[in-house]
Amino acid sequence: MHFRKSLFGLALLLTGLSFSIFSCETKESSAFTNPTMKAFFDNNCSSCHSNGTYNAGSWLYDPSNDKSIQDHIQHIYGEVYVKKTMPPAGLSQADMAAFKAWYDAGHPSN
């Protein structure tokens, strides 16, 4: 009897495990539409980090795809807030505060 209970428990575990494996959802990319931060990236980043620009470096800003920011957020945060090397012209205190608040809020795309 103990063997049957163990076998039944194992079967339930494996069934549940297979459901959790196959029900994983992946986030599809969407447009980056956060109004404040879209303006921030458009004004401060797109002239060098957009498609077709010479100085795009390791990051390409694409406002039609939020993954362009989300996949590189640690690098962007480091350059903008920690090192303060981007953008080259610097940021106003208001822009820096807005960037930090957005980052601390989980850097939402919308």
Mean pLDDT: 76
Question: Could you list the spans in which at least 5 consecutive residues all have pLDDT below 50?
Answer: 2-27
Helix-strand makeup class? mainly alpha
SSE arrangement, N to C: HHHHHH
- Which band does the percent of strand residues land in? under 5%
Keywords, separated by commas or semicolons:
55% helix; 6 helices; mainly alpha
Structure description:
The chain is mainly α and 110 residues long. Helix content is 55%, strand content 0%. It contains 6 helices and no strands. Residues 2-27 have low confidence and may be disordered.
Describe what is shown at a glance:
The chain is mainly α and 110 residues long. The protein is built from 6 helices and no strands. It has helices at residues 2-22, 35-44, 46-49, 67-70, 73-82, 93-104.
Which helices and strands, and how do they pair?
Layout: H1 2-22, H2 35-44, H3 46-49, H4 67-70, H5 73-82, H6 93-104
